C-alpha cells in the first residue's frame, strides 16, 4: 500500500515530467527565474557613447520624420 506522501511525490514527479515535455498546442512556459531579463552593461565609455548615441539618433530621426510628414 502507498502512503499519501508517496502519492504526492509521484504527482510532483509527473508534474515535473509534464513541464519538460514540449506541447505543440501551447507556447513553452518558463519559470519567472528563467524568464527574467538581462541587464544592460555600460561599463566602458565607448559602450555608453554608442548606446546613448543610438537613442539620440532614434529620437532625431523620429522628429525629422514627423516634421517632414506634417510639412510634406
* Count of helical regions: 3
**Rough outline:** flat
What is the N-to-C order of secondary-structure elements (H for helix, E for strand)? HHH
Give the biggest sheet: none
Notes on the protein architecture:
The structure is a single chain. This protein is mainly α and 72 residues long. The protein has one domain (4-71). 67% of the residues lie in helices and 0% in strands. It has 3 helices and no strands. The termini are far apart. The mean pLDDT is 76.
Question: Which terms summarize this structure?
Answer:
single chain; mainly alpha
How would the blueprint of this fold be written?
Layout: H1 4-20, H2 32-35, H3 45-71
Write a brief caption for the model.
The chain has 72 residues and is an all-alpha fold.
